[in-house]
Amino acid sequence: MFVEDTSGSPAIHETECTTCGEGPEPSVPDDVAVRHLWCAEHPARTGHTGFLALRVGLLRAVPVDEVRRPGAGGRLHGSAQPSAAPRPKR
């Protein structure tokens, strides 16, 4: 089971040219302005105008028995436990 990372790790930001694969230096990865400036300057140097911009959030793998679904009476999220719904009357 995967859950959202709560360790405080920042999201990963990547930007690259779709023609040559170059991208801004990773020295300031969370600075959107630096990435946008690089994308504005790159076409002047190369004539390349397509860019790929990604923001990747992190997930953590945890044992299924540690993941509880909120409001489900302690049932495991995604588990195959039987439903508490009543059977239809005949």
Automatic annotation (TrEMBL):
Positions of region (Disordered): 1-28, 68-90
Domain DUF7848 as annotated: residue spans: 6-64
Top-level taxon of the source organism: Bacteria
Protein name: DUF7848 domain-containing protein
Origin organism lineage: Bacteria, Bacillati, Actinomycetota, Actinomycetes, Kitasatosporales
